[in-house]
Design goal:
This protein has 281 residues and is mainly alpha-helical. It has 10 helices and no strands. Helix 5 (127-149) packs across helix 10. The relative contact order is 0.10.
Length: 281
């Protein structure tokens, strides 16, 4: 099979797209459940600190319980859980109660499939393609979690950082020395901005998860990619933030997650590091 993928780029791209559909279906579970898993963990820790017995709760993780309709509790059967196809065949509604299934689910699945296919089309059947697929899946999940909850879980940002350094042991995306410096510079740069902003205004301008995500991007692409990434993320974030304030009448005190813009800039850096660096210069 590997030989077939190496000989036929079209077959490799199609396989990547199929894998992306399956991965996108799993990412929907990650996006929905990881924040709830964190809330449960925090509740248990708070109870322990108060000297209380931890509240008993049924098992809840990425595998248990089975996916079900939040409106009626209908357990989703395998035939109703085919990525993208089931949503289209069911016209975006639960087969039991007719409740609408959010459009986000097929968007995540289709986006993951498209970006995985692009990764293999761009890098070929190689270690770089594998790294691009892994990075893409992490960034999609982190972007949606941060958009929903303003959280960037350590359980995802830290593994992403170490995986990037592991790929660069073989200089897949950057020399190892540049990757290590990138991880350090990525974290310390936003950490410094955070504390400077807090000292000047007395408010927190971003969360620690943003530091770790930026450090992870530095670990993948090296320190030379960081200026262009932060510039792109800041420009797009500022434009969207201003639009929300003046067009959507969103209050200035409402936090705007920065993670999705870092993730988007990281994906651009994956394919356009050279041009972005030139543009920044």
């Amino acid at each position: 099979m590997i030989e077939a993928f190496q000989q036929s780029s079209a077959l490799a791209v199609a396989a990547a797209a199929l894998f992306g559909l399956l991965a996108g279906s799993f990412l929907n579970v990650v996006i929905h459940r990881v924040p709830k898993m964190l809330e449960r963990e925090w509740a248990q820790q708070a109870a322990e600190l108060r000297g209380e017995a931890a509240p008993h709760a049924a098992r809840f993780d990425l595998l248990v319980p089975r996916s079900h309709c939040p409106s009626c509790g209908h357990a989703i059967r395998a035939v109703e859980n085919i990525p993208l196809a089931s949503w289209l065949l069911q016209r975006g509604r639960c087969t039991a109660c007719g409740a609408a299934i959010p459009l986000r689910y097929p968007i995540v699945e289709a986006s993951t499939a498209l970006l995985c296919a692009v990764a293999v089309a761009h890098f070929g059947w190689s270690a770089a393609a594998l790294g691009a697929v892994v990075l893409t899946c992490f960034l999609i999940a982190l972007a949606f979690i941060d958009f929903d909850t303003q959280l960037l879980p350590d359980s995802m940002t830290l593994p992403l950082l170490w995986i990037g350094l592991a790929f660069n042991l073989w200089e897949v995306f950057a020399p190892l020395s540049a990757a290590v410096i990138g991880a350090i510079a990525g974290y310390l740069s936003l950490w410094s901005v955070y504390w400077l902003f807090k000292l000047v205004t007395g408010k927190e301008g971003m969360g620690y998860g943003d530091f770790k995500l930026f450090a992870a991007i530095g670990a993948w692409f090296g320190w030379t990619a960081l200026p262009a990434v932060i510039l792109l993320a800041s420009i797009v974030g500022s434009i969207v933030g201003l639009a929300l304030i003046f067009v959507a009448r969103r209050g200035r005190e409402v936090p705007i997650p920065f993670g999705p813009y870092l993730a988007g800039a990281g994906l651009l850096a994956l394919y356009f590091r050279g041009p972005l660096a030139s543009l920044y210069a």
